[in-house]
Amino acid sequence: MKHSRVTARAHTNIALIKYWGKRDTTLFLPMNSSLSLTLDEFYTDTTVSFIDGDQDVFFLNGVEQPLEECVKISKFIELFRTQSSIKSAVLVESHNHVPTAAGLASSASAFAALGTALNELFVLRMDKQTLSTFVRQGSGSATRSIYGGFVEWQMGIETDGSDSYAIKVDDADWNIAMLTIPVNTRKKEISSREGMKLTVETSPFYPAWVEQAGQDIKAIKQAINNQDFIALGELTEANGMKMHGTMLGANPPFSYWEPLTVKVLQRIREIRGQGIPCYYTMDAGPNVKVICQADKADEIKKLLDQSFPDNTTIISGVGKDAYLLSVE
Amino acid sequence: MKHSRVTARAHTNIALIKYWGKRDTTLFLPMNSSLSLTLDEFYTDTTVSFIDGDQDVFFLNGVEQPLEECVKISKFIELFRTQSSIKSAVLVESHNHVPTAAGLASSASAFAALGTALNELFVLRMDKQTLSTFVRQGSGSATRSIYGGFVEWQMGIETDGSDSYAIKVDDADWNIAMLTIPVNTRKKEISSREGMKLTVETSPFYPAWVEQAGQDIKAIKQAINNQDFIALGELTEANGMKMHGTMLGANPPFSYWEPLTVKVLQRIREIRGQGIPCYYTMDAGPNVKVICQADKADEIKKLLDQSFPDNTTIISGVGKDAYLLSVE
Fold this sequence. Notes:
Two copies of one chain form a homodimer. Chain A has helices at 67-81, 107-121, 128-135, 192-202, 206-225, 229-248, 259-273, 297-307; strands at 5-17, 22-24, 29-30, 34-51, 57-60, 63-64, 89-97, 150-153, 166-170, 176-181, 278-281, 288-293, 314-316, 323-327.
């Protein structure tokens, strides 16, 4: 049955074992497997519907997007359209519930929501695993946003990317939460994509990163299996810092750290020193995320807000799988 | 002829290609060769004389030092005493002209000055290269303070350390200066020695560091030979950041950076962006050193002092070989 209007929701995710480096820049195939936590606080709702004409149209937060953005989205829609007998143009209306102030990338939830909606609109009936290989081609980290809880994006080995997909590792329903401390939400001087490329091409630490990430994935899945929060936290912190270490090895070296980043990291180590388990991670940017036990999140937020009143910490619980909100 | 009182001076040095990791912790044998610039602004003057009794005595800046420090110095004196027919105890009176506010380690100039004085007091007549293998056993970086200008500490391959010595690479008399911006001069949470050890033992980046340092040494000697300041600066900055990158790879990860460190690094990149060549390096601590052209040093200091009025930048020219100030 052909629908006229489908709305889907997908949550963003934060990698605990980072995706850092591509082996194929067109298919978004990664150099290493990664593992993330899906966050319920930040998500994208996307409605897709068929329209007349031969041009896809893209509205983000109610604003029609410029040609460049539409081309990117249209290319992504084409992945689904070629699988379907329906060849209509699509109107995409997307709403990001990822506050700019959180300094989080919205591309993971955006492509996961769009893919989930398109899968239904084009009546493709792909399972989630297959769908994750499609959304991967919009944004690498979107692969993981198909599922909730702890999610692994298995790097795969095939050149066509068919085995580079997400799997759910665990529901993360054992007292897990994540805090986000926005440090700087301005546009970055070096995009993640550029930073990744420079690191892969020039950092002598990169081969060791890839090897270590493989070991870290195994160890963190064991920690999740044991519901061992301390091991989970230590592995998260060590892996994130390793990723930032590869950047200092690049030529020329670069860093996403701001003065306030260092202050926040110091403060989190202090709080941990006071006996409250909490561990930081950072993506390719200056903002800090902290994994903690859900029943300690309020207390940690309070301490951080006291220290950084201008950078309000946001608490998030665990998000669930991407899903359809409505189908008409 | 036996002297009764010898005074020597040695200057401190800042590594442009860093010494980071030991292959022998007793003999202070390094995992990689390093290359430094000797600084005329910071030095140690040390007077040694024979005394009655069987205990060496150590005064630093006019204050008799506690037993623990005396034991360390006495062990160092013993290296020279065992080479000599004279077996007397020694009084060491050392004066550091390395302002605490500069946040620089004084062990390099201290052991180089003490070794230079002891070589004369015990009438050992070692040449400078041999002397550098002796002072190495007090502090690794002291090896390089035997010479002025650009100095290479060749790592050597022998297990007895006999080929792990300093050689002069260049007088650095081509418009070279170094600025020191003190960020924090408190005692570090993790000493250089501990940081080095943790990195060697746990950082997956360490093998790549060693290999890269070998390549960086070759490249910087070429830059020095060509008097190519830009290449010298770029290699210096990249090598220092690589060293700090290895620490983020350690388990647990650690960093010597303070919030102000990041601000200073950002400011230096800005100044460079304005067309004034200057490149930073950092040892195992939060303070920043900047290599620049001597005729630009005042201008850069002025800009840095405007930005960081509480952290006055210190300009230093190029220091010369360790030498005898007086022999009685």
